[in-house]
Amino acid sequence: MQESYKPHKIEKKWQSRWEKTKLYKARENYQKKYYVLEMFPYPSGRIHMGHVRNYCIGDVIARYKKMLGFNVLHPMGWDAFGLPAENAAISQGIHPAKWTYDNIDYMRRQLKRMGFSYDWDREFATCDPDYYKWEQLLFLDMFERGLVYRKKSPVNWCPGCKTVLANEQVEEGRCWRCGSEVEIKQLKQWFFKITAYAEELLSYCDRLKGWPEKVLIMQRNWIGKSKGAEIRFPLINHPGEITIFTTRPDTIYGVTFMSLAPEHPLVQKLTKGTPQEKIVNQFIERVKKQTHLERMAEDVEKEGVFTGAYCQHPLLDKKIPIYVANFVLIEYGTGAVMAVPAHDQRDFEFAKKYNLPIKVVIQPSDRTLNPETMEAAYTEPGIITNSGHFDGLPSEQAKEAIIQYLEERGVGKRKISYRLRDWGISRQRYWGTPIPVVYCPKCGIVPVPKEELPIILPLEINVKEKGASALADYPAFLETTCPKCGGKARRETDTMDTFVESSWYFARYACPDEKAAPLDKKRVDYWLPVDQYIGGIEHAVLHLLYARFFTKVLRDLGWLKIDEPFINLLTQGMVCKETYRCPEHGYLIPEEECKQGRCIYCGKKVEIGRLEKMSKSKKNIVDPEKMINQYGADTVRLFILFAAPPERDLEWSPQGVEGAHRFLQRIWRLIKEVSPSLNNKSERKNLDEGEKLLYRKTHQTIKKVTEHIERFHFNTAISALMEFFNVITDFVQKNETKRSLVLKDAIEKFVILLSPFVPHITEELWHLMGHKTWLIEQPWPKWEEEALKEELLLVVIQINGKVRARMQVPAEISEQEVKKQALNQERIKQLLTGKEVKKIVWVPKKLINIVA
Questions:
Q1: Which of 202, 377, 619, 737 has a Cα-to-Cα distance from 141 of 20 to 30 A?
Q2: Which of 439, 468, 496 is the last residue of a domain?
Q3: Rounded Cα gap, residues 410 and 807, in angstroms
Q4: How high is the mean pLDDT of the chain?
């Protein structure tokens, strides 16, 4: 009786041996390299099924490429700074560092339990001073290049997290992390000048051929390039001017008022000490309570208030009233909009509400617009009117002519504008990389000398419960001396946005032990760019955009020679499961809190919801560790990879997990049974029909699995292996006493092809068959074209759609010949006697249908 399949014993055994021999250690041997990387995790405490799916995908690719002969780099580390650790520390009364490093230890054990082929010698956490030291150096290098600056500006403030958010971290007016409604505040902040790379970030999207188009569309839209004109409107009775950007210079003669964002600095200057000051300030306070999403929504009521001030129309002898409007945002354009109500719907609604003039300057070709009777703005192309010597021009042609006229008069110029705004990196929290500058009463802002790096984040500090940075109240950190004059100074107490750490970690993996510089140029030149990057679509305009920006900065600072960090990008789908909800007690954990369709607390009937992304809040999570303890890591890996293509959402199925486990048990039983007799040999030239079939199926499977792994169709690759195993099983059952060389070859190829998906059971079986080498060091099998050819085909013959006969024909038979042979079959001749054959339909390699 064969020993039963014991996954935990097998998996522990091989993981120990792999680790002891450093089987997956990457070395710069300068053969053809392949760098595969999954987005590194935040050490939140436990890995979840989304992690497992992401890392399983990467592991298949890494193992496959290694067997193809590539020198593979497959690292793992930890995105360890940020708000969750600090918030957890506050709620649990522990230090963020302890919370973080304890979680890293736990999650590392979990990942190792999955058998992933990581080079653990390259592991680091971004909260290690050996990592963020170099981040501080890069900050100083960027500061010297003018790519870092500090200014007071309106910022997105999250009252829940008590910190500033970048524009990219605001989703539908709410904090991307905690969901709190975002407010606008005026604060002094540090910025990275990502706009200096806006055009390159945009144009290089066309070079990213290995990226999903949906991600590139999101990046292009976020960068938001617009061509138009910058126009200056001089203020009346005040110094200065209002500068606006417009994509519609053809409507300049239709301006009837000016709209400023409530946050625009001119608003206070124009209204201070005037009768309008109180009214304007009251309006601004009311608008502050509206989210950006509400202010930008098409159906929101357009509201505003007159400032009491005017500006001069740059092309007409006409003064323009200046309003503050809720639908104008400071971060878009210049925060000021020339209002053309006849040709912009928001301006039209505003003008109607406040009884402001509407002037038509573009007429459609099929009718005449009357400002008195217009029910909506006309925004399509047309013919210019009421615009001086530009009358009669098509509006598209007039754009260019008017821009040229503005430039000639010195009141405007051609301009390209971007939606992208500079990246605000200041965070008013403790658990992050200290910003390496000091403030001196005499010298102002002074960068910390590079030789004094790192500026260590003090770990002995108590984290504030209110959430504000504790560094401001810690004299040992705060108080310092000015590097320039030696006088008393104070350190910056803001820390960097945690997205800074994840913007260059992939480069540091190439040389994590480098002590003298951020990067070892020789090693990064060898390993970078990343050949295959894997992670969620939710990072399309956050991490991925920042990583592209940082790569270009590192290139210009002389650390990298590449333009883009990731050649290929795979955005995997989510892991989904249905939800269970009690009308009284809310979401329930189905296995623990729901019995026979009813809530265990109140007995009420439970509502089974639709499939949704696994989340703790909806209690529809499945603990990977529990699954591993029950079935083993290989079963979990196999199910995750088989259940859906990587880019699609995956529906969790307990039955699917059971099915994957049964398949591995079948493999175990069969190979354990036949392996002792696999050394019997027979000559391949004397193959019988069964051996020919198995030999052909072996090479067909090699081809199919290889092609499907290359396309990341892991589910269909596994399906092909299941089909192959059934053929092997059938051969063994029909040839109980015969163990041919063909069978030995088929089983060995099967084990090799299966190994990237389930490495533990295949390693055990490989050695059980007498091999002494590691499976991952085996060359990936190649198929023989000659072996793929079917020698004979079984063709079904139908008459008027009904099966009447079958015949065997050569695989390479022509259509003319197969039709001829079908008509010559004795049974077919009999059935067609006295009938007229109208046509014959040939479905290649399958059937003939005779219409008679």
A1: 202
A2: 496
A3: 87
A4: 91
